[in-house]
Amino acid sequence: MNQPSQVPTVPIFGIPVSRWGMTDTVQYLSGLIQSGERRPHQIITANPIMVMTALQDPAYMDVMRGADLLVPDGTGVVWAADKAGSPVKERVAGFDLLHELMKVGEDYHWKVYLLGSTSEVIQATAERLHLQYPGIQISGFRDGYFSQEQDADVIAAIREAEPDILFVARAVDTQEPWIARYKEQLGVPVMMGVGGSFDVISGKSKRAPKLFQQLRAEWLYRLLKEPTRAKRMLALPKFVAKVLRDKENLTKPR
């Protein structure tokens, strides 16, 4: 596990999830960038679907455990930490973390690279973020539809742009593994998968209304809007059942 000792964590089935809230998380990541060391760090926004995938796929578990920081994005992860008797301070949603980093970065004129989604969505995302955070330099962007044979060209473009932050929005089964595979080559201080955040920022889709967020039911809103997600969402009740069934082993080393 690469998470530094100063990060308080709670192990959820062997995956060390940060107990920090948003403020401490942003402060820590800002410090990594401002240090000037350029050492690469992978940030993963952990949710129950990712945890269940890791339990079924050893390679994905290695990716999760090898991350430099795992924040409690999914409300199910927050709930599981409570059940483990080691609660996290609050949910740290990846969408919100992206925006908080952009806010802080304005003061330092950080450079940000955007990778993923479609050409139309990524261009609209870049334009909207530039308008919203004019102090940030969007140092580059490209869509996420490229083959493994094109990885070297994509990495070269990112390295040439020298961003302080790399946000990646690709398919759930490739997003984190891709960052983990090329983390050292990319050499970006903070790299984070952001899922469907670009779709929301670009205006292609809407984030769940405040009521759903307050009820910790953003997953339900997404399911209602996109019924095709039903199969993937089956991991949620399985996660709940596993936490309740294996409560005594929830935080034991694996």
UniProtKB/TrEMBL annotation:
InterPro entries: TagA_TarA, WecG_TagA_CpsF. The keyword Chaperone does not apply. It comes from the Bacteria. Pfam families: Glyco_tran_WecG. GO terms for molecular function: N-acetylglucosaminyldiphosphoundecaprenol N-acetyl-beta-D-mannosaminyltransferase activity. Keywords: Cell wall biogenesis/degradation, Glycosyltransferase, Teichoic acid biosynthesis, Transferase. It is an enzyme of class 2 (transferase). GO terms for biological process: cell wall organization; teichoic acid biosynthetic process. Its EC number is 2.4.1.187. Pathway: Cell wall biogenesis; teichoic acid biosynthesis. It catalyses: UDP-N-acetyl-alpha-D-mannosamine + N-acetyl-alpha-D-glucosaminyl-di-trans,octa-cis-undecaprenyl diphosphate = N-acetyl-beta-D-mannosaminyl-(1->4)-N-acetyl-alpha-D-glucosaminyl di-trans,octa-cis-undecaprenyl diphosphate + UDP + H(+). PANTHER family: PTHR34136, UDP-N-ACETYL-D-MANNOSAMINURONIC ACID TRANSFERASE. NCBIfam families: wecG_tagA_cpsF (TIGR00696). HAMAP family: TagA_TarA (MF_02070). Catalyzes the conversion of GlcNAc-PP-undecaprenol into ManNAc-GlcNAc-PP-undecaprenol, the first committed lipid intermediate in the de novo synthesis of teichoic acid. Belongs to the glycosyltransferase 26 family. TagA/TarA subfamily. This is N-acetylglucosaminyldiphosphoundecaprenol N-acetyl-beta-D-mannosaminyltransferase. It comes from Paenibacillus rhizosphaerae.
